[in-house]
Amino acid sequence: MADSTDLISRNSKSLLRQSAPYIIAISVGGALFTVDKDIQKESLRSSLRGSDTDHFFRTVEHFGTPGPYLITIALQTGYGLLFKHRESYFDAEELAAGFVIAEGITWGVKKTVGRKRPYESSSPYSFFKSGKSFYSGHAVTAFTYATIMAKNYPSQDLSFIGIHHDLPLVPVLMYGAAALVGIQRVYKNVHWASDSYFGALAGYGFGTFATYAGKRFQNHGFHLGYLNGLMLEYAVTIR
User: Which of 13, 61, 94, 193 is surrounded by the fewest CB atoms within 10 Å?
Assistant: First the structure.
């Protein structure tokens, strides 16, 4: 009986430890809803606003669009086809999967939640009003892309510039750029802070799922069914 009690106790503690990051993340998001209006006001009257800042954030915004996705998928697929480098193609597959998943689910969430954007409503609690604010599509796209890239390229060898140990250069750059996209959406007054935050969480989840599922399929000899995958398999077979 004592052993059973100890086992239940250990399992409960293990479950709590595993659940803690998710509980904390959701709690932070919930708290953001209560200060969304204050963050908006502070952003609009920030002394940092100006033409230079506007230009910087207009540039940053592109990281949250399909452009980086499409360019990276094309480059990695082309490299895989040209040099028979399966890993590059597999990475392109995961990016394609992440993009499709993120865009599809985000569209459904926006339609269901219907939150009004900050410039459409003075209240951050305007849900189910046919709005498209929750969650930020730019943030989810940026973080899905960043997560897949970070997980596929977790560290880089920089010995060619005299640094003799690997550094997480890609993850730092990718997540840094994605975070700036989230901030830009608030700065531009097209999203509440909680929209960007939950977009980031969703993007991380979608990116993690895409890399995990992709590698599971690939390890079992399956592919995700994209045209570029069929092209690569055909090219490798006939050569």
Answer: 13
Nearest to 196 by CA among 27, 24, 29, 19: 29
Enter the tokens of residue 148: 């897949």
Bridge partners, 167 (sequence order): 156
Architecture per CATH, domain 26-238, reads as Up-down Bundle (1.20)
Contact 231, 70 (CB under 8 A): no
State the amino acid at position 162 in one-letter form. G
Give per-residue pLDDT as tens, 8-23: 555 556 666 777 888 8
Return the structure tokens found at 174. 């990718």
DSSP states along 43-106: HHT-TT-SHHHHHHHHHHHGGGSHHHHHHHHHHHHHHHHHHT-HHHHHHHHHHHHHHHHHHHHH
Domain range summary for the chain, segments of one domain joined by +: 26-238
CA 195 remoteness from chain centre: 13
pTM score: 0.83
